[in-house]
Write a structure and sequence with these properties.
With 406 residues, this protein is an all-alpha fold. The longest helix is centred in the first third of the chain and has 34 residues. The two termini are 16 Å apart.
Amino acid sequence: MSDTPAPAILAARNAVIAMFVLNGALFGLWASRIPSVSAKLSLDPGMLGMLLLLMGGGAIAAFPLTGRWVDRYGAAATTVWVAAIHALSILGLGLAPSISTLALALIFFGATHGAMDVAMNSWAGAVERQLPRLMMSRFHASWSVGAGIGAASGFFAIKLGLPLLAHSVLVIGVVAGLCLRLAIPPSRSPQWAPAPRIGAPHAPLFTLPKGPLVLVGLVAMCASLGEGAMADWGAIFLMATTGVPEASAAIGYAVFSVAMVVMRLGGDRVTYRLGPMRTARLAGIIAALGAGLAVIVATYPAALVGFTLMGIGYAVIMPLAFSRATNDPILPPGKAVASLATLGYGGLLMGPPVIGFIAEVSSIRVGFAVLMALAILMAVLAPALRPSDPIPPRARAGADTADPLS
């Protein structure tokens, strides 16, 4: 394969990047406005938690249907159509006048968010197979960049006093408009060709991995559980174990997030050098060392270093898992990605409650020790991420060729 992809493939690569940025921006927009929505409807923490669970439930329910659409109509077309609907779905969050209508809006927003997640990862895997270099990790880094854009837009919207509805319309007009324009080619391309019609006429409500993909799903679940726990409990861990004030504790998740973005930008190069299996094993070891440093030393500087290592370790796991799923020898790409996403989102949803339960019966420190054990399990299960034959030449570990990323 030539090191210079055809223009159509480069356009498809840019389109996928645009879709990851858009998905992240819409999520970041919502995350930045949660406090204002909560204040508007006088939500207590328990009610807000239930509403966020509904959002996650909507995403999980959408996975199998989206996987079927991807395998029937193609990942590119499915991604763009779902992206347009997802961009509009955020308007419902700004229009909701009551808790019941917000619940319905969150279910729909979560469903379209999850559907876009499955479709764009399937498209990313298809495009990656046509490129002379690995790209999945950088696609996921684009999501983090988008989330930062969405969160920044929330900061400025709040400063300017814009309500959520006006803020959403502005982001849809600028960010969604630009990203969708980049994703739709001027003429029909091979990337938009419908996929062969695959599978039974009805999909189960919950699609789970099959065969070797089960272990891949477990690795993804361990990583996503850790990510979810870090988002919701990282600051609390720092306050409880190191005694720092809330402002200092907030830095913990910031360093974790920055470490993830930086690692994802370089993750494809690491995977090319080491191969998926050794990269995942090293990632699990690094994440375990980070969690151990935070739990055992339990000082603020040590915990920040530990959070950084955890961000580095978790960063590459989901890209590796999705890349492996799109090349699964048993399930078609859409269904494989949907089944993997079910476990991944399951981990994100289970992480905070599991850590909270352990903290309730023991301590938050013990809860984070569980993350160390799960990271070790990631390292043990790393062979599951070894790609199935045939392996694209640019993905072979230990290849004796020049690094095409140079």
